[in-house]
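Render Leucine rich repeat protein, bspa family protein in 3D.
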Amino acid sequence: MCIGDCCCFGCKNISFLHLSFTCLSHLGQNAFSNTPLQSVVLPSSLFFLSSSFAFCTSLTSIYLPSSIKNLSGSFNGCLSLKEITLPQSITSLGEETFKNCSQLKSLLLPSSLIQLQNYCFFGCESLINIEIPATVTRFGLYCFKDCKHLTQIQIPKKLLCIGAHCFENCIFLESVLFYNSLERLEDCCFLFCLGLEEIHLPTSLTYIGQDSFANCVQLKKVTGKTDLCFANQHSFFNTPYSSQLNL
């Protein structure tokens, strides 16, 4: 059984949704988007959830069954969502899953998670704390951009690359811990992280992109792999540390 794309898009008389159909295998894109839904319960027959509830600005409660493996764009623009429990079955948070969930403050990610796709937490400006499991291998483009209250992040041990603009404008980010698996820091990944004062670069690093740490106006100290012949000449533009470089 399926519920089609845009089936109830924009319907104004839906506040609560309890889907108990055990044969429901698919919820279409934007099926309940832009509705005044406040609470949702989903059945255990679902394995994937796309943008079915995007822009449900009143949504505060949702139950995700343990059968769900992937989310993609599912809660984009859900401005009232403050907390959510993610089942251990989830392996991927797709593009724009929690984009602009501006009241989401903390989140416990499942230990089964492998990747965070582009724009996953973009604009989650209330997000203070998030623990990334060691299994994650990828941070996509703009993944945490504009998470303005995020103060610290521990990079997973298996992460190989931090995507472009990933932590751009995380203005209160003070601490970042890298492990010796990390190989690439793409363009602008920590651009305008105004609170960042010190970083330790792992020896595994082979590339630092343009403006990766640009305008980190308090970044004074860089330790670890400081032979930065692999860095772009603007990687540390407009930082106190840039005066120590000869790129």
